[in-house]
Amino acid sequence: MSDALAILLTALFVNNFVLVQFLGLCPFMGATQKMEAAFGMAAATTFVLTLASAASYLIETYLLSPFDLEYLRIIVFIAVIAGLVQFSELVIRATQPVLHQVLGLFIPLITTNCAVLGVALLNIRQNQGFIDSVLFGLGAALGFSLVLIVFASLRERMSQTDIPLPFQGAAINMITAGILSLAFLGFTGMN
Amino acid sequence: MNDAWLNDLTALAGQMAPSVILLTLLGTIIAAALLFVAKRYPNEQDEVIKKINACLPQTQCAQCGHPGCRPYAMAIAAGEPINRCPPGGEATIKQLAQLLGQEIVALDSDFGEEQPLRIAKIREEECIGCTLCIQACPVDAIIGAPQLMHVVLEDVCTGCDLCLEPCPVDCIDMVDAPATQQERILPANKNYPQMVNPSPLTSSHQACIRCGFCEEKCPKNLAPQELFWQRNDSDALSLLNLNSCIECRICDRICPSDIPLTDYFINTKQRIDDEVSQRERAKIAEVRFEERTKRLEVHQTRVKTRPSRKDKSQLLATLKSKR
């Protein structure tokens, strides 16, 4: 139990995907202008990352390793994750309209993000079991969501403030992201 | 020498085989799964809207209170009444009622009256070249430039009236469509001869008794009797190859009930042709409308992101004062 918690918290804070590993920066900058978009993106990412880590573990253990096909890992992961996500999106749309309204737009957007492939490849590198892999994916996704929501709320506040002209737009976002990243570096010692 | 080369090739193929097999299998499985789900759960809403949209005349006239035909189709799918399309008129209402399983209702006169197709014509000597009508046209059917005369492209004008209102000098008239455009009138609004199986009492000929004599004599091996019974069903007629009928009138002469079969066929062919060309026109209007909407969107985002002239001069002034 404490092991599981450690994996979850490590992925969430210490090895935060966005601010420490620098994965998934596109939605981090692109989908954080408004709080609702950030929430939708966060929910979709949580869904896709968890699914991807489970799928990639199963493929690696039962398809790639037994046949010595590890060199096909990247292309197979991409294809399977994209297919699986598309599949579940179609099913969700048909069976859970409310859920689809929340996630709908964001699921295809996040599928091809590097964070998704990243979680799959890191899982294999860390050589974990199935439960641990899924937990790692979930932790990474929660960390991503946390950062996305924190950053979105910061940006919403910033849009109300009087920012000096040269800093407006992308500049202040980069600076904020940098400071946020520094703050997350403080968790590094927690291992 | 030759053997070594062959051996290399075999070895290479052996190395490649597992990857090729795996990727092929994976691709097939994923494609099959996606296809299965897409078939199992079709995106019903989109399909319905597409079908409703196909019934609408694509004039993009906005008389229904929506900015175009597709938005009205979406509103119908969400439950709006189907009787708000004056250009489509009775025919459209009938089609929609059939599609949606609703009752046929009369056109809501609050939204306009059904009338024959008319197209816009600019009185060229009075046009001042203000471009206001160009901006109003939903299908980009008016061409012209500032300070220069404008002209309506008559084969893409849908007769929506939207250009009349913005014209500051009232130089646009709605005129009856020229003869070349007559086929654009909705088929159901043209007066085709009545196509019911006539009773012997009211017509010159008797009812069809399905004797089948006509089928033996048809030089094109068609089934005139079946064509006669299916004459209101366009799909069935195309299956029965109505278009191959050469109008030779042999079936008329052989028919014991004296039915003027060929006359019926000529009429029906005309009606189907009109329906087809109408549908093509609607498609063109729809495409033009969508292209225009897209163009306007791009234009608007460009205008939005560009700093206004006022801001620019202010910015320059502050920069100068600082220096």
Q: Quote the distance from N terminus to C terminus of chain A.
A: 16 Å
Which word captures the global form of chain A? globular
Largest sheet of chain B: 2 strands, antiparallel
| β-sheet strand percentage of chain A | under 5%
β-sheet strand percentage of chain B? under 5%
Overall pLDDT score of chain A = 85
Uncertain runs of chain B are 193-201
Q: Please, what is the average pLDDT of chain B?
A: 81
Query: H/E element string of chain A?
Result: HHHHHHHHH
- Provide the domain count of chain B: 3
Largest sheet of chain A: none
Uncertain residue ranges of chain A:
none
* Number of beta strands of chain B: 4
How many distinct folded domains of chain A?
A: 1
Individual helix count of chain A: 9
Basic shape of chain B = flat
Can you describe this structure?
The complex is a heterodimer of chains A (191) and B (323). In chain A, 76% of the residues lie in helices and 0% in strands. Chain A is an all-alpha fold. Chain A has one domain. The radius of gyration of chain A is 17 Å and the shape is globular. Chain A starts with a helix and ends in a 6-residue tail after the last helix. The model of chain A has no long low-confidence stretch (mean pLDDT 85). Chain B is mainly α and 323 residues long. Chain B has three domains: 44-111, Electron transport complex subunit B, putative Fe-S cluster (3-methyladenine DNA Glycosylase II, Chain A, domain 3, Orthogonal Bundle); 118-182, Alpha-Beta Plaits (2-Layer Sandwich), CATH 3.30.70; 204-304, no CATH class. Chain B has helices at residues 2-40, 44-55, 69-77, 89-100, 132-136, 213-217, 224-229, 234-239, 250-254, 261-305, 309-322, and strands at 118-122, 142-143, 151-152, 172-176. Classes of the chains: A mainly alpha (191), B mainly alpha (323). Chains A and B meet through helix 4 of A and helix 1 of B.
